[in-house]
Specification:
- There is one protein chain.
- By secondary structure, the chain is α/β, with parallel strands linked by helices.
- It folds into 2 domains: 10-37 and 73-480, Glycosidases (TIM Barrel), CATH 3.20.20.80; 39-71, no CATH class.
- It contains 18 helices and 14 strands.
- The chain has helices spanning 17-20, 45-51, 58-64, 74-77, 81-95, 106-109, 120-135, 151-157, 164-180, 195-198, 200-204, 214-239, 261-284, 289-298, 308-314, 363-377, 403-422, 470-480; strands at 10-14, 39-40, 71-72, 99-103, 139-145, 186-190, 244-256, 319-330, 338-340, 345-347, 381-385, 426-432, 452-454, 466-468.
- β11 (381-385), α17 and β12 (426-432) form a beta-alpha-beta unit.
- It binds 6-O-phosphono-beta-D-glucopyranose (BG6).
- 6-O-phosphono-beta-D-glucopyranose (BG6) is lined by residues 16, 19, 191-192, 250, 323, 342-343, 385, 389, 432, 439-441, 447.
- 6-O-phosphono-beta-D-glucopyranose (BG6) binds at residues 16, 19, 191-192, 250, 323, 342-343, 385, 389, 432, 439-441, 447.
- One of its GO terms (cellular component) is cytosol.
């Protein structure tokens, strides 16, 4: 029987370019879709929620390009990791992480997406960043696309709706394999594949009121992403034999609301439709029958080209990955109470407490998910994101007391350890937003996930200085004793 985390377990931290890097107009970078997301200081919380995903084309998009003082573009500045990475990586090394998960910004490598030649300054930035990590023995887990694509690809080609975007993406990924290949240890072509369905602006760059047949367009885009993903795996394996290329979903762990067989069946359907479909295509290499049935029912018709099925079946992923923040319940009953969740509104579970943002905290759900995913695919697994978004207070003496975060980490890591003892082949754990970054949904700095505090507020004001929270010391100790911590 296994006793706990294996030797060499990859304890780590995760961030994404658009939420951390900033420097949107430095180093030859082009404008990307996250750079367009903005909020007006005068908006109410409801307006912010309503407008957050409506950026491309039309009046609001143009407004986002003006320099109006009341309009804020949090993703253009992030935490200015681009200009602070040396001191930040030094802190990461002090924390003791073994792996950094970050994303590469497509618009830094190909500013317009369809450029002939890559932007050398962009490539150099990642060479320097990854070398800095290796200097401290920190491995690199690179996400090739974490939501933001060059704006030009959307304006000129319609983004993922257009098959040409597959070629642009594969060219971009191939450049990364060729130029950064020996500096990256794990690759992830797409962050949270199912985001395309549940947050289409981020996932596949579609805006609902600009699409005559929104749902059909979403699945067409997703098909193009599946093909791009498979062709990327093909290129990666050819250029870098033995490379590890994974597939990821945002895991919506789902329980039946009651033991009524209808609720159990509903849970199976919700799970297939929201979670498994995406990993099934990437890991098993074909569209499952249940989704064909769903397409028939909803009258969804996607265009496939001859050869697509073979591309999918011949190029499957080497490991699975997921983000885990909450669980929810499934039921056929109408009017079930809802609460917020990552990317979706979730059905409430009366047994669980929620975070300040309404996400249901469920450490045991992490063990359940790890067992489910490993049982289903028998591939090594990465917990690519997990963490608690909370409001923190920076004290006058530079300390931040965050026992709630320590408790969250402690309980989730304990369940992860149980899953390893259950037999799950777990590669690593990259805690989400381990240095505070701009939150993705609400675009707030005040929704903090980090064990490192960054002094910036929602409007980007502050010293931008970094401070160690109490959870920094806890996570450091946890890593030192390989997760064997009370
Ligand atoms: C995941 C994303 O869906 O959830 C991250 O991959 C995101 O980019 C994270 O930051 C947490 O969500 P939020 O909205 O609280 O930042």
């Amino acid at each position: 029987m296994k006793k706990g985390f294996p030797e060499g377990f990859l304890w780590g931290g995760a961030i994404a370019a658009s939420q951390a890097d900033g420097a949107y107009n430095q180093g030859g970078k082009g404008l990307d879709t996250q750079d367009l997301r903005y909020f007006d200081a005068a908006w109410t919380k409801e307006e912010r929620a309503m407008y957050k995903n409506r950026r491309i084309n039309g009046e609001k998009y143009k407004k986002a390009l003006t320099d109006d003082d009341t309009v804020h573009y949090p993703f253009r500045w992030g935490i200015d990791f681009y200009n602070h990475y040396k001191e930040d990586v030094k802190l990461f090394a002090e924390l003791g992480i073994k792996v950094l998960r970050t994303s590469i910004n497509w618009a830094r490598i190909y500013p317009n997406g369809d450029d002939e030649m890559p932007n050398e300054e962009g490539i150099q930035f990642y060479i320097d960043l990854f070398d800095e990590c290796h200097k401290y023995g920190i491995k690199v887990f690179a996400t090739i696309l974490h939501y933001n694509i060059p704006v030009n690809l959307v304006e000129k080609y319609g983004g993922w709706k257009n098959r040409k975007t597959i070629d642009f993406y594969v060219k971009y990924a191939t450049t990364l394999f060729e130029r950064l290949g020996n500096r990256v240890d794990y690759w992830l072509p797409f962050n949270e594949f199912n985001a395309g369905r549940f947050n289409p602006y981020n996932g596949v760059c579609l805006v609902e009121d600009q699409e005559p047949d929104y749902v059909n367009a979403i699945f067409q885009c997703l098909h193009h992403q599946f093909i791009a993903n498979a062709l990327t795996i093909k290129a990666g394996h050819e250029i870098l034999p033995g490379s590890m290329i994974g597939g990821m979903i945002a895991r919506f762990t789902t329980y039946p609301a009651t033991c009524h067989p209808d609720d159990v069946m509903q849970m199976i359907l919700d799970d297939q439709y929201s979670n498994w479909f995406y990993l099934d295509v990437m890991a098993r290499g074909k569209y499952p029958a249940y989704i064909e049935r769903y397409f028939d029912k909803e009258n969804i018709q996607i265009k496939k080209e001859a050869g697509d099925d073979m591309i999918l079946s011949e190029n499957t992923i080497d490991f699975t990955a997921f983000s885990y923040y909450f669980s929810q319940v499934s039921t056929t009953k109408q009017g079930w109470e809802k609460t917020a969740g990552n990317l979706i509104m979730a059905n409430k579970n009366p047994y669980l407490e929620t975070s300040e943002w309404g996400w249901q905290k469920d450490p045991v759900g992490l063990r359940i998910t790890l067992n489910q995913i490993y049982d289903r695919y028998q591939l090594p697994v990465f917990v690519a994101e997990n963490g608690l978004g909370a409001k923190d207070i920076l004290e006058a003496d530079g300390t931040v007391h965050d026992p709630y975060r320590i408790d969250y980490l402690k309980t989730h890591i304990a369940q992860m350890k149980e899953a390893v003892i259950d037999g799950v082949d777990l590669l690593g754990y990259t805690m989400w937003g381990f240095i505070d970054i701009v939150s993705c949904g609400p675009m707030e700095m005040s929704k903090r996930y980090g064990v490192i505090y960054v002094d910036r507020d929602d409007e980007g004001k502050g010293t931008n200085k970094r401070y160690k929270k109490d959870s920094f010391y806890w996570y450091k100790k946890c890593i030192e004793c390989n997760g064997d911590i009370e």
